[in-house]
Please model this.
Amino acid sequence: MTGDEERRHRVVVLVRPGLLPMELGIVHRLFGQARSGSGAPLYDVVTCTPVPGEVSTDTDFSINVAHGPDALDRADTVVVPAAHEDYGPQTRGGLDPRLREALDRIPPGARIASICTGSFVLAAAGLLAGRRATTHWKSCDQFRELYPEVDLDPDVLYTDDDGVLTSAGVASGVDLCLHMIRTDHGASVANAVARSTVVPPHREGGQAQYVQLPVAGPGDSSTAAARAYALEHLKRPLSLRELADTASMSVRSFNRRFRQECGTTPGQWLARQRLQRAMQLLEETDLAVDRIAVEAGFGTGASLRQHFQTALGVPPRAYRNTFRGPEPRALAPTGEKQ
Model:
């Protein structure tokens, strides 16, 4: 193993019989696409199972998994996908002893995540007690009945409670993996992974997991054009009226349709896009914070700092230092706040 490989973050996917293959593919594809500025892989992704060999799936094919539970011994992140057995009646703490033994091998301090109903495994192992978590909306009632000690939130795409993460379903597994990549390496790396796999670069974890979108009739309109327009004009103030006019809708119809299509309000969506733009500029440019605030549409550095602190818990300068290293003092004009 080379020095570069030794420094890679090791992601181990723990699979079970009845695996949903797409969920395994999500982890390998997204983490496998993450690259440093020099093009080096940032993650080492390994699949393991309690008993190595052929593992059944919920389809007409199986997969061969060569690694056993010892692969977990050096894990930095462990991901537990769903399995077919999760969708039937379950009992509290009902884990196969071999699966429980495998989970016990996870090193202290390792990040642990589940996709969809893989959250039942984490709960049964006692890893979610007292934590905020989510699962697929169809399984929420059973989950809450079995594990009342878990702070279950049925209305979000994913949760991150101090390194223990859960996601609501297959698609939100994509959001969860991108969230972890963004946490580790910043928005630029996560956005590059999203672009290479042709998925949205960011959906807020608090977005509703099930958005009921009516089938559009021949005369119905979409807010897609207004969203594209907003992304092209993030730098300047954008009113709800202007966006509604772009979509050729009344404000009331636009607001309703936007919620149906995006699961959030236009204002919340716009604030998130501006925050993402600011994150990108902090990572990729030497622009001062006040200038980035203007370019991202926050207007003032104070407004940007407030949004950053609320959304990420850190000021812009600390965020930049995390992903680019400390700024040379000469970058900021004398007297300008960072």
Remarks:
- The two ends are 41 Å apart (CA to CA).
- DSSP finds 14 helices and ten strands in the chain.
- The first strand starts at residue 9 and ends at 14.
- The beta strands are 9-14, 43-48, 53-55, 63-65, 77-80, 111-114, 132-133, 151-152, 158-161, 164-167.
